[in-house]
Structure to design on (150 residues):
C-alpha cells in the first residue's frame, strides 16, 4: 500500500515538474504572436504587431494603433504603401529563424517611411523581443524591445 502511494506521488510530482516545463519549451523560441511596440521618445505603447510564419519566413502586420498621435496613413512611404492605412499594413517581412536569433528581415518605420534591415532576438523567456533595425551593418542601427501580448 505504501509502495502504491509512493508511486502515485512520484508520478504526480514528475507530471507537475515536466508538464509546465514542456509547455514552456514549446512557447520559448517562437516569435509568432501579438507584440506591443513602444515609441522611442516617450516609451509609451505605440502599436500591436501580429507576427506570423508564412513559407518559413516571419512577417508582422499592424493590428492596432495605440498611439493617439500616430498618423493613420503612411505618408512618408516611398513604395506601394504610400498613403495607405498603417492599420493592417505589413511592416516586418522576411525574418528567418537561425536558432535563437532571427535575421535577414526588413522593417518599415511608418513614421519616416524608411525600410531597414531587421534582426530579432527573444529575451526574458520569450516575453520580450529585441528588434534591431539598421542600414548597412547591425552596428549602425537601433534596437526596440517589444513586449509579448499573447
Amino acid at each position: 500500500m505504501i509502495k502504491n502511494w509512493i508511486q502515485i506521488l512520484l508520478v504526480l510530482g514528475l507530471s507537475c515538474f515536466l508538464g509546465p516545463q514542456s509547455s514552456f519549451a514549446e512557447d520559448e523560441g517562437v516569435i509568432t504572436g501579438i507584440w506591443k511596440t513602444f515609441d522611442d521618445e516617450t516609451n509609451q505603447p505605440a502599436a500591436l504587431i501580429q507576427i506570423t510564419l508564412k513559407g518559413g519566413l516571419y512577417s508582422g502586420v499592424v493590428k492596432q494603433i495605440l498611439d493617439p498621435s500616430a498618423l493613420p496613413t503612411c505618408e512618408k512611404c516611398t513604395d506601394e504603401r504610400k498613403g495607405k492605412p498603417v492599420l493592417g499594413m505589413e511592416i516586418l517581412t522576411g525574418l528567418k529563424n537561425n536558432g535563437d536569433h532571427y535575421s535577414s528581415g526588413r522593417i518599415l518605420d511608418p513614421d519616416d517611411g524608411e525600410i531597414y534591415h531587421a534582426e530579432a532576438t527573444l529575451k526574458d523567456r520569450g516575453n520580450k523581443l529585441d528588434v534591431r533595425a539598421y542600414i548597412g551593418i547591425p552596428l549602425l542601427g537601433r534596437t526596440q524591445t517589444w513586449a509579448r501580448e499573447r
Observations:
- The radius of gyration is 20 Å.
